[in-house]
Amino acid sequence: MRKLLTLLLWLTPLGMLLAAPPVYTPVTPRALVFPEDFGAHENFRNEWWYMTGWLETPDRQPLGFQVTFFRPTTEHDEDNPSRFAPKRLIIGHAALSDPKAGKLLHEEKSMREGFGLAYAKAGNSEVKLDEWYFVREADGRYRTYVEGDDFALELSLTPTQPLMLQGLDGFLRKGSKPGLASYYYSEPHLQVSGTVTRDHRAIAVKGSAWLDHEWFSEYLDPNAEGWDWTGINLDDGSALMAFQMRGKDGGRIWAYAGLRDPSGHMTIFSPDEVSFHPVRTWRSSRTDAVYPIAMRIRTGNIEWQLEPMIDDQELDSRFSAATIYWEGAVTVTRDGQPAGRGYLELTGYDKPLSM
Amino acid sequence: MKRNLLSRWLLLGEWQAHRLQIVVAVIAIALGIAMGFSIHLINSAAVNEFSAAVKSLSGQSDLQVRATQPTFDEMLYPLLAQHDGVAVASPVLEIQAAIPGKPGDDRSNTLKILGVDVYRAVAMTPDLVGVPAEGRVFDVLADDAIFLSPAAMEWLAVRQGDRLPLRLGTKTVTLRVAGGLVRAHAGQRIAVMDIGAAQWHFDHVGVLSRIDLKLKPGIQRAAFKAALAKALPAQYQVTETADQERRVHNMSRAYRINLNVLALVALFTGMFLVFSTQVLSTLRRRPQFALLRVLGLTRSQILRQILRESSLLGMLGSLLGLGLGYALAATALHVYGGELGGGFFPEIKPSIQLSPLAALLFFLLGVSATLLGSLMPAWEAARAHPAPALKSGSEEMALAGLRTPWPALVCLVLAIILTQLPPVVGLPIFGYFAVALLLIGGIAWMPSLAAWFFAGLSRAGNRLTAGVLATLALTRLTNAPQQAAIALGGVLASFSLMVAMAIMVASFRISIEDWLTHILPADLYMRTEVRQDAIGFTPQEQQAIAAAAGIGRLDLIRSLQITLDAGWPTVTLIARPIDMSDPANTLPLTDDALSPAEIPLDAVPIWVSEAMVDLYDYQVGKRVALPLSEVPQDYVVAGVWRDYGRQFGAIQMQLSDYQRISGEWQVNEAALWLQDSITPQQLMAALKALPFGESLTFWQPNEIRAISLKIFDRSFAVTYLLELIAVGVGLLGVAASFSAQALRRIKEFGMLRHIGVTRGQIYRMLALEGGLLAGFGISIGFILGWSISLILIFIVNPQSFHWTMQLHLPWPWLAIMALAMLLAAALTALVAGRQAVSGSVIRAVKEDW
Question: Which of B648, B665, B698 is the endpoint of a domain?
Answer without folding.
Answer: B698
